[in-house]
């Protein structure tokens, strides 16, 4: 059985801050081929599709398409703020390695 990704309260709170749900938008997390390690994350605001897996919290939504879901099984989607900037991050237990930027990984 596939465990869906987990979304932290901090990530939902950031979506609420930017008003994503108020505009009918959700955070879309997808996995695509490419990047320096073989796969890369595509994270953007988007309109949910009817076949997406929808994760909800604090009135906000994070969506994952069915093709990306197996790559994100058990992953944690978070929002971090550091001196170098703020961004949504993914802690993926399925990744055997990742690049320094955190958007590319291999399995």
Automatic annotation (TrEMBL):
GO terms for cellular component: iron-sulfur cluster assembly complex. Signal peptide: none annotated. Pfam families: Fe-S_biosyn (PF01521). Residues 6-102 form the Core domain. InterPro entries: ATAP, ATAP_core_dom, FeS_cluster_insertion_CS, HesB-like_dom_sf. Keywords: Iron, Metal-binding. One of its GO terms (molecular function) is iron ion binding. GO terms for biological process: iron-sulfur cluster assembly. This is Iron-sulfur cluster assembly accessory protein. It comes from Roseovarius bejariae.
């Amino acid at each position: 059985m596939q465990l869906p990704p987990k979304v932290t309260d901090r990530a939902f709170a950031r979506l609420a801050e930017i008003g994503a749900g108020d505009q009918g938008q959700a955070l879309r997390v997808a996995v695509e081929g490419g990047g320096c390690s073989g796969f890369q994350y595509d994270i953007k605001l988007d309109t949910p599709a009817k076949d997406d897996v929808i994760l909800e919290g604090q009135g906000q939504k994070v969506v994952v398409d069915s093709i990306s879901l197996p790559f994100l099984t058990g992953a944690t989607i978070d929002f971090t703020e550091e001196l170098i900037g703020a961004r949504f991050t993914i802690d993926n237990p399925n990744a055997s390695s990742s690049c320094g930027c955190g958007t590319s990984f291999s399995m």
